[in-house]
Amino acid sequence: MPAITLRTLRVVLLFALTLSCGAGWHQPAVVGPGTLPARQQVQVWQHQTVLRWHAVQVTADSITGIPFVQPIDCEGCRVAVPQASVDSLRVGNPVAGFWKSVGLGAAGLVALGVIICSKGCAPD
User: Is pTM, for the whole model, over 0.85?
Assistant: First the structure.
């Protein structure tokens, strides 16, 4: 069995670190009045707590949305917070991020296998 080199360990560490940023949460440049796409997931940060919504609507003085665990068409579930009490908004897609992370992890394992086997995985 070939010895694991420092280079191989660096590659493994790099892939492990990139798996931690899969959801792609980011702050949009500007969120003006209007409606975001219904299935767009939004994190509303308010006083060191986060609310996770979809079907978000932004007005001049408030932000409303439906909690992510509720169906998009549940208008009775809609909650609102004053725009002034919101520290920041982040948008993302954790489902797509999950699949990107799975793909990246699989590619990392294949790359690791190629690196290790290129050093001496000859068939017997």
Answer: no
